[in-house]
């Protein structure tokens, strides 16, 4: 009877060993699959981070270029506005001079007309 219990104990130990080996094998496959998935995700994220860094660097360069262009455009606009103001001032002066000449000519015409129409 004791030998029969030993046999059952040995069979139980073998079954337990096989079950534990199978469970470890399943755990190993699941863990390996998760590690592979995480490694692939890490590679994708590393590539994304590198691409984002390049994009940020390019955006900084573009912003600097745009800033310089805006400053240059503002300078050009300021020069154009100054020239426009000078031209407008010259036009105003010519307009005032022309108005003075027209008024003077009109006044002389009135004087001549009065002189021609007054009895002598």
What does this structure look like?
With 120 residues, the chain is an all-alpha fold. It contains one helix and no strands. It has one helix at 2-117. The longest helix is centred in the middle third of the chain and has 116 residues, at 2-117. The protein is rod-shaped and about 170 Å long. It starts with a helix and ends with a helix. The model has no long low-confidence stretch (mean pLDDT 91).
Structure summary:
The chain is an all-alpha fold and 120 residues long. It is built from 1 helix and no strands.
- Unreliable sequence segments: none
Largest sheet: none
Through-space gap between termini: 171 Å
Count of DSSP-assigned helices: 1
Number of strands: 0
String of helices and strands: H
What is the CA-atom radius of gyration, in angstroms? 50 Å
Q: For the residues shown, what is the average pLDDT?
A: 91
User: Structural class, from secondary structure content?
Assistant: mainly alpha
The percent range for strand residues is under 5%
Tell me, briefly, the overall form. Answer: rod-shaped
Roughly how much helix do the residues carry, as a percent range?
A: over 70%
Question: What labels describe this entry?
Answer:
rod-shaped; mainly alpha; single chain; 0% strand; 120 residues
């Amino acid at each position: 009877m004791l030998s029969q219990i030993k046999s059952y104990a040995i069979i139980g130990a073998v079954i337990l060993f096989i079950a534990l080996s199978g469970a470890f094998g399943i755990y190993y496959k699941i863990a390996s699959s998760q590690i592979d998935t995480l490694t692939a995700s890490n590679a994708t994220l590393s590539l994304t981070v590198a691409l984002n860094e390049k994009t940020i660097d390019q955006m900084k360069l573009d912003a600097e270029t745009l800033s310089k262009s805006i400053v240059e455009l503002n300078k050009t606009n300021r020069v154009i506005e100054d020239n426009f103001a000078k031209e407008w001032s010259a036009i105003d002066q010519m307009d005032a001079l022309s108005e003075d000449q027209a008024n003077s000519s009109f006044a002389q015409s009135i004087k001549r007309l009065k002189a021609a129409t007054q009895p002598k």
